[in-house]
Amino acid sequence: MQPTLLILAAGMGSRYGGLKQLDGVGPRGEVIMDYSIYDALRAGFGKVVFVVRRSFEKQFGEFTRRFGANVRYATVEQEIECVPAGYDYPRERVKPWGTNHAILMAASVIDEPFAVINADDYYGVDSFRVMADYLNTLAGSRNRYCMVGFRVSQTLSETGGVIRGVCEVNEANELTGVVERFQIVRTNGQIYYAGDDGQPVAIPDDTLVSMNMWGFTPDYFSHSEQLFKAFLQTSGHKPRSEFFIPTAVNELIQEGTATVRVLSTTSQWFGITYKEDRPAVVERLRQLHEEGVYPATLF
Length: 299
What we know:
Helices cover 26% and strands 26% of the residues. It is built from 7 helices and 13 strands. α1 (32-43) crosses α4 (125-135). The relative contact order is 0.20.
């Protein structure tokens, strides 16, 4: 059974000022997702599932028409009201519940090992190859997950601070902990994140971080549902609280429920956090086409 690619495309794009996941940045108007899908299919993924918001479902439908019969895909919605029966939420809340809540929305359409990525990040050809190779070993397995790790120095924006899952890895290349860190920037040659007290904390350039390229088996859905219920009980009343993938993964690791293999890649990540990042992404994609990494037309 071929693995599935789950693309988280329900983000609001508040820092970007629009639907950056549908912004045409390739030479022929391709969006970053187009490259992820193309790379995933040639690595051996069998279908794609998109998590979107109802508010831009029509625009997303126009985007998927380009695939024709070349891509098997499904679309699911992530909305604020998508909470388990018996749970409530603040009516003033304006954004969904975060990345791990988005994964939960796909539980009804995925029965095989699957990878999770952000819609607006470029992960590269080799990243999808190593992910597909590992997921193909997990058929019938439970509680054995993986992630593709990137060096923090290769994931920064020159425009402003970024959010990354800072990782700890043991000698067996297994993740022992991951913590979401905010406002990661390079200042005077040194990389810092904002500590819990708001003060800058220095980290080395080669610190391993998660760019939300994860691999799971379907049992992850049931774990996530239970963790989401616990999250709602403790933080659901907060209008801006979010249920992140690293939060759920870290909980499963710490309680000994799951292991997460960290996969290495030769690919170079890039992406759009702020609108000022766009010209560099446009130029890099143009170069990749010119170098023959991608054909003139992807689909």
